Amino acid sequence: KLFHHAAVVLINCTASGTETLKNLVLPGIGRFHIIDDKLVKPSRSNEFSNFFVYDHDEIQPKSQKSRAEIATLHLQELNPDVKGSYTSVDSLATTDFSSLFTTIQKQLESDTQIIVVAADLPPPILKTIAGVTWGGGRERASSPSIPLVIVKSFGLIGSVRVQVPYHPIVESKRTSKPDLRLTLSKHEFPELHQFVGEFNLDELSNEAHGHVPFVIILIKALDKWRKSENIGNEALPKTFKEKSKFKEIIKSMARDHNNELNFQEAEQNDYLAYSIKEMSSEVQDLLSNIGDIFQNDKSCLEISTFDVLLLALKRFIETNGGEPPFDGGIPDMTSATQPYIRLQEIYKSRAEMDRMKIKGLVEDIVNEYSSKGLVIPSISNEYISTFCKNIHNLQLLQTRSFTEEFNFSYSSLEQKEEILGDIAAATYDPYEVPEHTPLLWFIALRACEAFYDEYGQYPGKKVTESDVSSVHDHIIKILQQFDLINNDLIQSTILSNDNDKSFARELVRYNNAEVHTVASIVGGIASQEAVKLVTKQYVPISGTYIYNGIAGVADVYTF
Q1: Higher pLDDT, 368 or 507
Q2: Res 326 pLDDT > 50
Q3: Sign of dihedral through CA atoms 21, 22, 24, 29?
Q4: Mean per-residue pLDDT, 454-465
Q5: Measured between alpha carbons, how far apart are the two ends of the chain, in Å?
Q6: Is the separation of the CB atoms in 151 and 133 below 8 Å?
Q7: What are the pLDDT digits (tens) for 270-295?
Q8: Beta strand 7-11 pairing with 148-154
């Protein structure tokens, strides 16, 4: 639903840009808009660099046309249900993107999610767009931010980067162990224990015995273990010896262990009977920091639905004995139909009770803070339900801005040390052929961007030794910024005397050429990240994806 109601704005209609759009148009994104400043004479020769810029009829000579218009026409042919539009500008370098984005937003419905894709843009233009889309940044004040996906195809090297100051993820789709709460006592989870009490395993037929859900087996085994140890009704196995004995009790309860899959499942999942599912460190950090957001004295701070639900979750845990809401799900297991359905009903009923408590807490928060002047968004029952089902998988993505990265600026010394430490750690595990390591090619690509920032054009317009030397000098400056000059991998590759500036020479040779096969790969990655951002499902890359088309390898780094 979110995807089909979203709009993507492509800036610069290059091959990687149109490939990104292609992968969004085919599955049916709501609409797309292209902003471009190029005029081209469509011909079949254009297909070598961009498959979407050609003319159907070449019998008669054609005058120059807007590249954005041609690409829009051909992209719409892929999916007529997707609305496409374009804006041709005189120059991307002088375009007022802030006003242009505002105009585009006014043409859309108020709840339409917009995402911007910046393709193959030189640093000066990209920094402008990155600044506009960054908005109020992490403070979420003043102008709102717009998710930005930066995609680049430079010869045989490609890159994809996401810029988003605040992107909450409820459905991260991470796999985790079931949250069955088998450690809860009869007083804390009476519905489950009452259901378990209805089973007398000794009186069941062999067929029924082999189809008892493992949840029931584990609780029965836990009772047997407590009696054998002569300890309290709420005690749990803690030591290795106790856990081993508990597992042996499970085995002893089976009539034919080799053929009773339910008892094998109970043995495999024995840890669920004595281990408590802890909240992830990411969720704990979110809960510990959420109070600061609501205590912030900035009246212009934008409070999100995610913030409200986090505060509600924090209050729920504090008033519920430290237990989070039930998610209502149970895993697949060997079971007869009726017992399994009963288990589902028990967990869904408990989850619904917890959801209603969360809803009540949300209403209290809205009333409390609305009276203090904060603008609190409305939250649907569907979103509350989705939130409760995914409390163990909550994440918040906050990337660095492109401008911070490009200028080698850091918010703190701690952040700088962390980033430089991660970059250095990446050099300790190079690829089988060290020269293929994507990090090395990003540094060379970054040097070409610095070359453009200095000279106003990319190196290689005329392949000269001067350009090679200049790019190599920029490589050295970047290595100094990353504190990698004396790094073993760097010394044996980029700075090796045997390489004769081969990294710089290779990038200069490309002269920012578009290779459509490389563009299709990075376009596929960029569109995948765009879908994650729009749907708020799965976790987008938090760093920069680097594709080395020379060797066909890739990796992600945070700079």
Answers
A1: 507
A2: yes
A3: positive
A4: 87
A5: 34
A6: no
A7: 999 999 888 888 999 999 988 777 77
A8: unpaired
DSSP string, 448-480: HHHHHHHHSS-TTSS--HHHHHHHHHHHHHHHH
Q: Residue 331: name the closest of 272, 256, 287, 392 by CA.
A: 272
Q: Is 9 helix (H, G, I), strand (E, B) or coil?
A: strand
CB atoms within 10 A of CB 443: 25
User: Are β-strands 31-36 and 83-88 bridged in parallel, bridged antiparallel, or unpaired?
Assistant: parallel
Residue with tokens 């037929």: 205
- Angle value at C-alpha 146, between 548 and 37, nearest 5 degrees: 70
Cα 84 from Cα 100, distance rounded (Å) = 16
Token output for 436? 């293929």
Q: Please name which of 178, 274, 276, 277 lies closest in space to residue 218, comparing C-alpha atoms.
A: 274
pTM: 0.88
**Residues 219, 225, 228: CA angle, nearest 5 degrees:** 145
Compute φ and ψ for 295, nearest 5 degrees: -90, -5
DSSP type of residue 198: T
Cα atoms in the Cβ-side hemisphere of radius 13 Å centred on 242: 17
Rounded to whole angstroms, how far apart are CA atoms 536 and 518? 27
Residue 142: C-alpha distances to residues 162, 299, 301, 447 (Å): 21, 10, 8, 34
Torsion of CA 225, 230, 232, 235, to 10 degrees: -40
Is residue 161 classed as helix, strand or coil in its secondary structure? strand
17 is written with which tokens?
């840009």
Helix (H, G, I), strand (E, B) or coil at 243: helix
Per DSSP, what are the bridge partners of residue 7? Answer: 31, 114
Question: How far is residue 353's CA from residue 347's CA, in Å, rounded to a whole number?
Answer: 10
- The burial class, CB within 10 Å (0-12 / 13-18 / 19+), for 468 is buried
* DSSP type of residue 148: E
Distance of CA 372 to the CA centre of its chain: 34
Give the residue among 81, 65, 14 at the shortest CA–CA distance from 56: 65
pLDDT per position as a tens digit, 487-536: 999 999 999 988 889 999 999 999 999 898 999 999 999 999 999 999 99
CB 546: neighbour CB atoms within 10 A?
A: 25
Distance CA 267, CA 264 (A): 5
Q: Which residues pair with 556 in a beta bridge?
A: 545
Helix 465-481 to helix 502-510 angle (10° resolution) is 120
